Amino acid sequence: MKITITAFERSPDGGMGLARDTRVRWALEEAGQPYAVRPVSFAAMKQPAHLALHPFGQIPTYEEGGLALFETGAIVFHIASRYPGLLPDDADARARAITWIFAALNTVEPPILELATAKFAEGDKPWSKERLPLIADRIRHRLGQLSAHLGDVEWLDGTFSAGDLMMASVLLRVRPSGILDEFPRLAAYVARAEARPAYQRAFADQLAFNTRSPTGG
Ligand SMILES: N[C@@H](CCC(=O)N[C@@H](CS)C(=O)NCC(=O)O)C(=O)O
Prior knowledge:
By secondary structure, the chain is an alpha+beta fold. The chain contains nine helices and four strands; from the N terminus they run E-H-E-H-H-E-E-H-H-H-H-H-H. The two termini are 27 Å apart. The relative contact order is 0.15.
């Protein structure tokens, strides 16, 4: 069944791979599934046609036959459930890998998002200077806990899984702040994830997509 995802017509990051379509591309590459990408402009994202796919007017979305999904957690979980390669066969190991998807999105990503909001949407507010270090410390607290859990192992729970994909994807978003590099084990973990051929393909594809010429060449 043909898979189509949506992505920013032009990602605001210019192809750094931080927009969330990258994690979906990565999951599809890990699962060996071909897919098409439909670009959506900021204006089109808020129009009825896109809102029918994504009630919050965001990207990415995922269409496969009659199925339409939004939320990267649900999309990556769906890909990992439908295709082999991203979740272990053992039921308990599978449940633990799924737990890491939730942990990445519900526990690690929120303060990272808060930092981006504080910098880019609220950076001109008078209280912003005082707020930023508080958020940075909340991120450090979480990364410290994650680093302690990871220790010196390669992946969060045995073999690489959708949980690692989501966690590395979330951690990549904090790297530009410099905070990730304060945690060498986590920086190395992200580097291992980035070195995976599937990530390399996903990254290259989003870069080509976000730097294509306006005429489509
Ligand atoms: N929780 C959602 C967040 C989706 C999201 O924030 N998408 C961003 C791009 S990475 C977006 O569409 N931003 C534009 C907007 O919100 O108007 C998910 O994981 O899919």
